[in-house]
Amino acid sequence: MNGTLPPQQISGWGRYPTGTSQLARPEQVRGITDLVGAHRYVIARGLGRSYGDAAINEAGVTLLLERFNRFLSFDSATGMVRCEAGVTIADLLTHFLPRGFFPPVTPGTRFVTLGGALAADVHGKNHHKDGSFSRHVEEFNLLTAEGGILRCSRQENADVFWATMGGMGLTGIVTEISFRMKRVESAYVSVDYDQAPNLDAALALFENSDQGYTHSVAWIDCLARGRNLGRSVLMRGNWATPSKLHRRQAENPHALPPARGLGVPFDAPRFLLNPASVRLFNSAFYHRHRTRHDVVVPYEPFFYPLDKIRHWNRLYGNRGFLQYQCVLPLGSSRDGMIRMLELLSSEGHASFLAVLKRFGETEGEQLLSFPRPGYTLAVDLPRNGERQDRLLKELDQVVLKAGGRVYLAKDARLSSESFQAMYPELPRWLAIKRRVDPNRRFTSSLSRRLGLDG
Amino acid sequence: MIVIPRSNHGTVLIAGATSSIARGVAAGFARRGYDLCLAGRDLDEVRRVASDIAVRHQVNVSAVRFEASDAASHAGVLERLMDEGSAELVGAVLCFGVLGEQSVAESDFPYAREIIAVNFMAAVALLTPLGTYFHARKRGFIGAIASVAGDRGRQSNYVYGAAKGGLAIFLQGMRQRLAKHGVSVTTIKPGFVDTKMTFGLPGMFLVARPEDVGEAIVAAVLKGRTVAYIPGFWKWIMLIIKSIPEHVFVKLKL
Fold first, then answer.
1. CA distance A387 to A322
2. Would you call B55 and A95 a contact, using CB atoms and an 8 Å cutoff?
3. Interchain proximity A73–B48, CB inside 8 Å
4. Cα→Cα distances B9→A185, B31, B79, B91, B127, Å
5. Which of A29, A139, A439, B202 minimizes the number of CB atoms within 10 Å of its CB?
6. Dist CA A331 CA A229 (whole Å)
7. 8 Å CB contact of A73 and B20
């Protein structure tokens, strides 16, 4: 078919695993419909920021939707946006922050499409206040297996609406989305940094004072041991009111001065990231961030510290890396986290990007959405052979025992057995999947690995 | 609905508005505060591009139907566009085109005629009334996308190249005619651009992003450039390709 590339090797952001898939880049609904009609197995891909194999379709076609990215309407009275699924968080920031609006939820990179945000039901630093992305979606159009458009909202086709939130693109292709942006007072965040010398101190801070902040997250040192186990720097803040800004900033509170980005032009050699260098980095990071309150910072370094460095995934070398993100329910969070940190630190697995966050309540009838009330830990690990595979399996067991789950948008290696045990709503989801996609047209390498094909 | 005051820059017509280069051109004008009248074959798609530009850049954008391949519909096309868009134009950029498949075109005349109809005849159909319009106003700018493929006939795309080359000659004459009346005519020759037209084609190199190409086109047209290779280094590549003697050229695989 015209405009379809023969099988190519592609991968997610973690650059592992790679898979061969045909590629097409439709720009219009009709093009997407034609491609869905012409191929046996289809999956949509946005900017490819999921880490593992969620947006790879071996033995099928992967639809690149980055050019399917038109805004259809914006209502400045309500903040309601309607747009095609390939519009990105970066687009929202470029065009609406100067008008005083911010995305309702944003992950740690702005280079994700809204279709991807919906498929992974992404969360951000404001989850404890504002929930995940699905909470802010009014409705969307879903292109289904037969080529028809299904309008989905909390009232209309509600079961498909909830099955698509966090459904990893497997119910169909989201074409248009309506969601509400948030009004913000400026493009700056007033941040409180709090050092926590160990995990208990960090958890106490989260439990006692998280409600005072719209945005909350902690960097955690996964290599610290003993009485330092789980030492963290909490970074929590609220949108800065113009009165907190310098005179220069206050003149145009919703605009940032242009910043220059850096790039990683090639794969870093493997010796760059080793336990010793990471230990050094972690220690420096911890001690640099003394407890300080009311620090006004621009939104970019606060929300998107790594976006400044294009292709930062190359820092992990050409073998790629894994991100392990799980959530443990409140009751079992402390013990589970301690066990996981012990495993990570005792084996000296190099991870310098580890994040701890308290999730808030969830509302709605999500089936495969990741967030639940409790604590989430996310750890980046350069890929490193069998010893690491064993460690991650041990982490899976800790998560299972604690009644937690692993985040599919980050995952590249979970077993289908573990996955099924972690997501108890799976049978209900599969029933909806079989109804809207009876011939299993929407598949991905992830869906085949985890048994999400229906 | 937000009421946006009409810009004082005036309105620019963009024909063939749904291509990714045209979207880049529209964004370039909108960023500078121009209102837009977008014309294209698939009105539904033109409307989507129009709303996208209006939401992103807060300018007025109208959408009208224009069927490039249907020569019979071209009579009075500008009047119709202007009626529907209800705007006074300060300039126009023609962005439509179809590459077609050379292997089919070289042995199938109706197919070849279609390629020539869209790339050349339709452009002439629109450029003719535009020339009259801007001539009468004694100002304005016209830009049209030709191609580096029109600089020298090559076995891999000479039907398309002939149509675009013909368009370049047409624009050259029009430019000379209108220059003394305050109207600029810019021939735009993009090199390889990462568009739907070229996605998946083998042998592409130095591929430019359509949004960057669109921005460069707007800059060239507003400056009143005569011929603009985009990106600029294509001027030198084409200079080399044009200077190869024909008896050598016929032996090349190029």
1. 14
2. yes
3. no
4. 32, 11, 21, 10, 22
5. B202
6. 20
7. no
Q: Which residue of B has its CA nearest to A2?
A: B200
| Residue A397 CA: distances (Å) to CA of A165, A391, B238 | 26, 10, 63
Task: Specify the amino acid at residue A338.
Answer: I
- Return d(Cα B139, Cα B134) in angstroms, integer: 6
**For the segment B221-231, what is each residue's pLDDT rounded down to a tens digit?**
999 999 999 99
Q: Does the beta-carbon distance from A72 to B55 stay under 8 Å?
A: yes
Main-chain dihedrals φ then ψ at residue A133, nearest 5 degrees: -60, -35
pTM value?
0.94
Distances (CA, A) of B106 to B40, B100, B114, B176, B252: 28, 11, 12, 33, 19
Contact (Cβ atoms closer than 8 angstroms) between residue B31 and residue B7 = no
Cα distance between residue B66 and residue B81, in whole Å? 8
First to last CA, chain B: 54
Q: CB-based contacts of A272: which residues, under 8 Å, 6+ apart?
A: A315, A317
CB of A76 within 8 Å of a chain B CB? The answer is yes
How many C-beta neighbours within 10 Å does residue A283 have? 15
Give, for all 454 residues of chain A, the pLDDT tens digit.
Answer: 457 888 889 999 999 999 999 999 999 999 999 999 999 999 999 999 999 999 999 989 999 999 999 999 999 999 999 999 999 999 999 999 999 999 999 999 999 999 999 999 999 999 999 999 999 999 999 999 988 999 999 999 999 999 999 999 999 999 999 999 999 999 999 999 999 999 999 999 999 999 999 999 999 998 889 999 999 999 999 999 999 999 889 999 998 877 766 777 777 776 667 777 888 888 888 888 889 999 999 999 999 988 888 888 888 888 888 999 999 999 999 999 999 999 988 876 667 678 999 999 998 899 999 999 999 999 998 888 888 899 999 999 999 999 999 999 999 999 999 999 999 999 999 999 999 999 999 999 999 999 998 7
Distance from the Cα of B16 to chain A's closest Cα (Å) equals 15
Output the six-digit token pair for A442: 């929407």
Whether this model's ipTM surpasses 0.85 comes out as yes
**Maximum pairwise Cα distance, chain A:** 62
